[in-house]
Design goal:
Layout (H helix, E strand, L loop, with lengths): L1 E2 L2 E2 H18 L9 E8 L6 H21 L7 E8 L4 H13 L4 E4 L3 H14 L2 E4 L6 H4 L5 E3 L4 H4 L9
Parallel strand pairs: 3-4, 3-5, 5-6, 6-7
Antiparallel strand pairs: 1-2
Helix pairs in contact: 1-2, 3-4
Length: 167
């Protein structure tokens, strides 16, 4: 689909890239030529792997564009880590601990609420920004963690949007 010469995919990619720039810009000062590590964490395997593939591919495209545009100061480059939680809470905790040890600045994930909630505690403690593209349980953001954000609607609000909004 195209809107005024822009495809939806390009707009979405630009939005993700813009978000990455914002979070990276708020991070500690960058050394010349340094690497800014971000991650995408989600179900790369298992019954929800199709969603994980979309997350991975979108994040990879956004990082590629971001690095090509050269918008980070001092020739810094964004490095993308990909982590598989298979929508399993225990695996999500292991992923979150690994990404915290690797000192990533931003995690796009997790997709499943059951994975996002336990991982979010680890990210919050480490000061890592988490943006979940699919977790819809209100509990994820109602706990007041300052580093947790969502881009999908909450379960308790999804049914209240009138269908006319989408036509």
């Amino acid at each position: 689909m195209s809107i005024e010469g822009y495809t939806i995919a390009n707009t979405q990619r630009a939005s993700v890239a813009s978000a990455a720039i914002l979070f990276c810009a708020l991070a500690a000062p960058l050394a010349r030529g340094s690497e800014v590590k971000i991650a995408v964490a989600g179900p790369m395997t298992g019954s929800s792997a199709a969603f994980g593939a979309q997350m991975r591919d979108g994040a990879a495209a956004a990082v590629e564009d971001l690095n090509a545009w050269g918008l980070l100061p001092d020739n810094a480059k964004v490095i993308l880590r990909v982590a598989d939680d298979a929508c399993d809470p225990r695996q999500a905790v292991a992923v979150a601990n690994k990404l915290a040890t690797e000192r990533v600045l931003l995690v796009v994930g997790h997709f499943c609420s059951s994975s996002s909630i336990p991982a979010s505690d680890i990210y919050a403690e480490a000061g890592i920004v988490q943006v979940s593209p699919g977790s819809s349980t209100p509990q994820l953001t109602e706990r007041g963690l300052k580093t947790v954000f969502r881009i999908s609607g909450r379960d308790d609000q999804q049914g209240t949007v009138p269908p006319s909004t989408f036509t």
